Amino acid sequence: MPNKRKKLPARVKSLDEPEHLRPASLVKRWDGAVTLGTLKNWRSQGRGPPWLKLERQVVYPVKHLVEWEQDNMRPKVPF
């Protein structure tokens, strides 16, 4: 039976989507392309995606993470 859930408008967030990602979740999102150590180094050097501390926990706001990912995409190189 097909799913009859209505598609949400673009500006309304699904309840399944987190607002923030912890560093380990970001590593998973990027399929291990970076490590937790790399993220820690980037934070100490002022590099990488925007992050903040909430209740002593480092988190990455998904909204800013998506923008950072788009700004840092590399063009495809033809073979």
Characterise the protein shown here.
The protein is of the alpha+beta class and 79 residues long. It has a domain at 20-71. It has three helices and three strands. The chain starts with 19 loop residues before the first strand and ends in an 8-residue tail after the last helix. The mean pLDDT is 86.
Query: pLDDT under 50 segments (min length 5)?
Result: none
Q: What is the distance, rounded to the nearest whole angstrom, between the alpha carbons of the first and last residues?
A: 43 Å
* Number of continuous helical runs: 3
From the alpha carbons, calculate the radius of gyration and give it in angstroms: 16 Å
* Global mean pLDDT: 86
Order of helices and strands: EHHEEH
Bin the helical content: 25-40%
List keywords for this structure.
79 residues; alpha+beta; 3-stranded antiparallel beta sheet; 3 strands; globular
Question: Care to give the gist of this entry?
Answer:
The chain has 79 residues and is of the alpha+beta class. The protein has three helices and three strands; from the N terminus they run E-H-H-E-E-H.
Set down the secondary structure blueprint.
Blueprint: E1 20-21, H1 23-29, H2 36-45, E2 52-54, E3 57-61, H3 62-71
